[in-house]
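Record type: ASSEMBLY
Status: queued
Input:
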Amino acid sequence: MSVDWLIPAILTIVTAATPLVFAAVGETVVEKAGVLNLGVEGMMIMGAIAAFATAVSTGSGFLAVIAGAGAGLLLALIFGVLTVYFQSNQVATGLALTIFGLGLSALIGHSYVGKTFEGLAKLDIPGLSDIPVIGPLIFGHDGLVYFSVISVIIVAWFLNRTRAGLLVRAVGENHDAAHSIGYSVTLVRMGAILFGGAMAGVGGAYLSVAYTPLWVENMTAGRGWIALALVVFASWKPWRGFLGAYLFGGITIIQLYAQGMGVEVSAQFLSMLPYLATILVLVVISRDSAKARVNAPACLGKNFHVSV
Amino acid sequence: MAETPRLELIGITKAYPGVVANNNVSLKVMPGEIHALLGENGAGKSTLVKFIYGVQKADTGRMLWEGEEVRPANPNAARKLGIGMVFQHFSLFDAMTVEENISLGISPELTKGDLAGRIREVSAQYGLPLDPDRYVHTLSVGERQRIEVVRCLLQDPQLLIMDEPTSVLTPQEVEELFKTLRRLSEEGVSILYISHKLEEIKALCHTATIMRMGEVVVECIPENETARSMAEMMMGENLVSPERAERHTDGQVKLELSNLNVVSAHQHGTELKNINLQLRAGEVLGVAGIAGNGQRELMEVLTGEVLLDEPASIRIDRVSAGRMDPIARRGAGVGLIPEERLGHGAVPEMSLWENAFLSGATRMGLQKNGFIQVAASNAFAEKVVDEFRVKTTGVSHAANSLSGGNLQKFIVGREIMQNPGVIVALQPTWGVDAGSAAAIRQALIDLASRGAAVLAVSQDLEELFEISDRIAVICEGRMSEARPVENVTVEEIGLLMAGIGLEGEPADAA
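Status: finished
Output:
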């Protein structure tokens, strides 16, 4: 009997975690390149509204996701031009980006409130998807869920195994050295920022076309900030960020079920749980401070300009 | 000569706001020639080589490579031409391995296949031991430099630019490096060699171009000159050698290390084993050693960056000081000159007067009721700049805007002017030009003459023999007995540094 309850719960956990996976993985690359973009929340919400608007007007989930990525990318482009080319402060610019995104999305989204979209199609492989328990758990998700897992694999491989990834880390570690060896800090950072923006946009798109296929103002509800925190607590490692996202998503859903079943703990405390547990677990697995120091990009948040 | 110069510079001029770094500089380097570029800190050598290596562009002037006019737009283009460079300030990434660092600094084609194997091969071939899997932040300065050298050698350069490559090497290592360079030269590789060590230049270089204030003053054949004559051409004035006044080295013990055992906080660090030492008022005690033999760990416990479990292992004026933090130690009259100027010696982004305040706040009375005495701090910093002839246009400039040698003069001056009872200096003249180095050494000697106790840790034996009353050697975390400088030879110290014949050492307690 318990399995009947469990499978839908796990499916919901996956959908709750996926937007965080996208945003966190994207931001990991950005921060590894030495840029702190606090505009994740703004890029996510712009991705969400762009995707939902496209979904409603075209009916295509695929186009919707592309639109979401595009919107996140555009916002990231503004951030990149301001911080990389005009040397504006990264923290202030990122915060402004979030506020800008929240406001603009509310404006655009005004006419979409109350509209609906049937949601992304679930993968349906005849035979495999019908296997009890395993079928829905492994083969019963929408395409973006698989894409999110693949993106973690690719980003982890890119950062640790490829020369281009090494260059991204180098730029984040010591931009002066990277410059004097002859690499373009500007280009690497712009690339990373745009990638991070597109990923945050896809994360936002997932919220509005798959998780809850409708538009509500401010529907990201702080997930961009959670993604940012995940990146740091995961010591800039994609797989730990993935784990953190699922932990957070998991406990969010479980505490909802617990509230629904009338557990004798105050709802406020239960709502706190995902945050507490995620931070606690990630702090514990990254507790070796010497290693954490090595993982942290040394130039994080510092603008680069050719001196003298 | 009918031969085409490998590199020829004609009339290079480069001006920065307020200063002309290079004024109409011309230079010729022939194939296989080892060409020295000499000049004081700030004479414009770095600007010139940055231009050759494509890091910066000149305002006017031409560069000919094998007779053809070129204009390397960036270091990649310079590397393609066959120019390799070993930087004075290393272009390394601390959080990455040796192999990753090298891979970033060479052309992509060279990174294919067994790069680690080739690193081992080249480093063994040229006597520059390197483990490709080690992380850079665990390496000493000397080891870090090897990465830069190996990185260049992997690319088979036609012209190798070396910016003060030997400043952190031991005499034996320097000899090894020179063998390498001479072999490269015989193979036809040209070398542009920047150094302050004039004896080395005499021994190694075929020709020398001497620069002063951004201009070429003269070209000479180092073999036909003396170190002194070259130094004087660089400075444009006469060089004064450090003078040693008669000193009493039997003063009271100012700093005492007894049974000092320290487990290194660093990965692959060196454990300090049972170090005993007495530093007396009025003497300069030199500690020689190859980088990575415990100097960093020794400095950390002396400065108070690392605190000891056993407070009595370090005593300052007979007071147990093992658990005093750096501020308390400064309060107790200890002056500290760490190895890394940017980061340990000074806060890079802060102005000179702020840096002067940070170290001198207590002893110079630069704070009152929790407020900074801005005027007094400025005055103190200005006094340091004046007395130690730091080249800067004002004390409100950031520490990292000064050249390495100038900043070092400032840091040394700042500590000495606080009139400490004990001063601990690690590599006090690293990367500093001959004139300034002489001034720093003289200042340390004068301080001792006034009754302070000076502990100088250095790899530069010439320097240690010049300033020290007694010399000890640190090797693999053990320290030899300090011996009066009259009773030891450079060869003996060199052997001790290499770990040969640490006789009279107590057996390892463990």
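Annotation: The domain at 242-324+455-504 of chain B is CATH 3.40.50.300 (Rossmann fold).
Annotation: Chain B has a mean pLDDT of 86.
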